[in-house]
Design brief:
Length: 233
């Protein structure tokens, strides 16, 4: 399935802001890749995933934007990682991506300013998305330094939240919710968002291969969708 001209114009008009935001975001992380090239690659995602595009725009704006943003960021991560490897002369297989479990292992050490190997270090390292370790040697000191750097780049509120969860008090999500006068689910969400922020500042999660929906599961675009987005004469 391909996108009709009218529908394509709707996508270009409706998601130019999101594409620009993510292109700027990833150009800051990967300055060797131009904003224009990142933007072009992000627009390409829509054309490579027409069935998902058609389905997701039917959702309410919040859900639609969340799904598109997640997929576009994943696409940008994969593209920029390849371009960085090409520019610096190494293989993409050498790219290193942090996992949530590993970050959680090192946060208590960072918060309490302890210089030692985590107790469950070996189990956590097994979940890292790479065939290569940071700083060539791949020892725990490199991980500790990275997580310390990512933690220090968080906002004061995010740091305070993680100190409650992973510091000496080791507060539960229920206790954190009580401190902030929010729901337990909201407290869990804020903690996870702060952890994701650290991972993002350390290069982001490992990109995944994203397939489009099967055409048979999506209504015919010309009959059900594109009529609403035809250009006016």
């Amino acid at each position: 399935m391909t996108l009709s001209d009218g529908f394509a114009k709707y996508i270009l008009d409706g998601y130019s802001g999101l594409v620009k935001q993510i292109a700027n975001e990833y150009h800051s992380k990967y300055p060797m890749v131009s904003r224009e090239d990142i933007s072009q690659e992000l627009w390409l995602w829509f054309w490579e995933h027409p069935n998902k595009t058609i389905e997701w725009i039917k959702l309410d704006d919040k859900d639609s934007d969340r799904l598109f943003a997640k997929s576009l960021r994943n696409h940008a991560t994969g593209y920029c990682a390849k371009e960085k490897a090409k520019a610096l002369g190494f293989e993409t297989i050498d790219n290193f991506y942090y996992h949530k479990d590993l970050v959680e292992q090192f946060l208590p050490l960072v918060i309490e300013d302890r210089f030692e190997q985590p107790a469950d270090y070996a189990d956590s390292v097994g979940k890292i998305s790479t065939t290569s370790d940071p700083s060539t040697g791949g020892n725990w000191m490199s991980y500790l330094a990275d997580v310390h750097s990512g933690f220090k780049k968080l906002t004061p509120d995010q740091q305070a939240l993680l100190v409650m969860k992973y510091g000496p008090q080791q507060l539960t999500h229920d206790q954190i919710a009580s401190e902030f006068k929010i729901t337990t689910d909201n407290a869990r969400m804020r903690v996870n968002r702060a952890l994701r922020s650290i991972i993002f500042k350390l290069g982001g999660s490992a990109p995944f291969t994203e397939e489009d929906y099967e055409a048979s599961s999506v209504p015919n675009e010309e009959e059900d969708v594109s009529e609403d987005y035809q250009e006016t004469e």
